[in-house]
Amino acid sequence: MRERWRFIAVLALTLAGAWALWAWMLALAIPAIDLAGEAGRISRLLALSFLLMTSAFALYEFKIRDQAPDRLAQVAPGAYFERDGLCFRPLIRVSHEEGGRQRAEISLYYQNRYAGECEAIIHLRPPERTVCSHRGGRDIHVALRVGGGAFGVVHQPVAVAPESQGQPVEFELAAAVRWIRGQGDQLRSRCGEPVGTFEVDWALAYRQSRHELCGEIELKQPARLSLTMPERVLDDIVKGEYKIEIFDGLDSARNA
Fold first, then answer.
1. Domain of 7?
2. pLDDT digits (tens, 9 = 90+) for 36-81
């Protein structure tokens, strides 16, 4: 769709340029091919107006209009968060395990605003004795590699304490982002609400140990988000492995 509009913009600009060239240069230089009197003046004014309009349209298509749709806003209405070009928004959902048991999951939707590839760590910290991702560890610590323009989701199974079920729980959010070879072109202009960060040893970024899960990481200026926990879900978990789904990459984002 985007390539079609760009083709139309180039075609219209070419036609407008040809018309303006004829009306303002060739016709004035060769009076024999100029329109007589008032008709010639009107033709030149229309040619100039058409050239200005098509130039503005081409400028919008190539320089101003976003190259990728805001898919994150479609699944997470309202505000979402951002760290250094990577936008994300946690939501809560319920999945079903064997035996009909219900498991709460934190679904972390994300979208890269740039064409470059990055590594990211997103950290969520609930209050103690409310939500946990591993037995003995309450924090949710997600490390992932995000392609240019990519849109996806990470599902993290969690246990919800009985007294927190059906109640709002306030999470602290922070993130760290490292660009592999630079950000590249900007694909979307809308920014998310900024979140704080934390110190990262990128050589060990993909591990999940006690340090990452037990509230030991110092979150600097974290954002806050309240999520209402579902009811009648499991309140215990041994180890919750998160699952990553990628819906869109750079090519599909640009062609949307």
1. 2-64
2. 566 667 777 888 888 788 877 676 666 656 778 899 999 887 789 9
End of a domain among 38, 64, 90?
Answer: 64
**Whether 10 and 33 share a structural domain:** yes
Reported pTM: 0.75
* Mean pLDDT over each residue of the chain, to the nearest integer: 84
Question: pLDDT tens digit string along 96-141?
Answer: 988 889 999 999 999 999 999 999 999 999 999 999 988 888 899 9
* Phi/psi at 187 (5° precision): -100, -30
Q: What is the CATH number of the domain that holds 214?
A: 2.60.40.10
Token duo for residue 112: 């890269």
